[in-house]
Amino acid sequence: MRIAYVRVSTEEQNEARQREALKQYRIEKWFCEKRSAKDTNRPQLEAMLEFARSGDTIYIHDFSRLARNTQDLLRLVQQKEIQLISCQEQIDTATATGKLMLTMIAAINEFERSFLLERQKEGIAIAKREKRYQGRKRIQQPDSFELLYGRYRDHKVTKSEIARQLEISRPTVDRLIKEMETGHKGKS
Questions:
Q1: pLDDT score recorded for residue 16
Q2: Considering the entire predicted model, what is its pTM?
Q3: Secondary structure, 3-state, the chain
Q4: Which of 29, 85, 95, 151 measures 20 to 30 Å from 163, CA to CA?
């Protein structure tokens, strides 16, 4: 079966470019999500891996859509004995050359991400030293949070559902719930 995995990192990003590039392969099943690839804990990635069978072909726009580190990428490919085709890198893992290139590109992607994070930390450290960085603005408790918190307490919604409804992150939901349960709000 021809399966596509499409991923963008944030809600603001658009997956149309990736979908357009993959159309030529007559995809039979699509898995799309808006999540970071910092790890493999992604609902649509997990659903795709559950769905895929040995011998299936998974099409991606580029390797960084699937995984950001070499170990994760290689494990995903080997775990299911699937063929992986990457449009941008023009690599097919059904060939020996494709398998070699997969390993090399995955290592380069991992290096690139590590280097980016290093530069980001350095930039933040300099900005802090120069008193130009104050961190992200703290998200205040939305008006509808108390109602959602009650529904959460009654096991009618999950933390993830609250995060989606309020368009905030799961860690922010955790913080807001903790504040509700301890009866005080954190620093504003």
A1: 92
A2: 0.57
A3: CEEEEEEECCCCCCCHHHHHHHHHHCCCEEEEEECCCCCCCCHHHHHHHHHCCCCCEEEECCHHHHCCCHHHHHHHHHHHCCEEEECCCCEECCCHHHHHHHHHHHHHHHHHHHHHHHHHHHHHHHHHHCCCCCCCCCCCCCCCHHHHHHHHHCCCCCHHHHHHHHCCCHHHHHHHHHHHHHCCCCCC
A4: 29
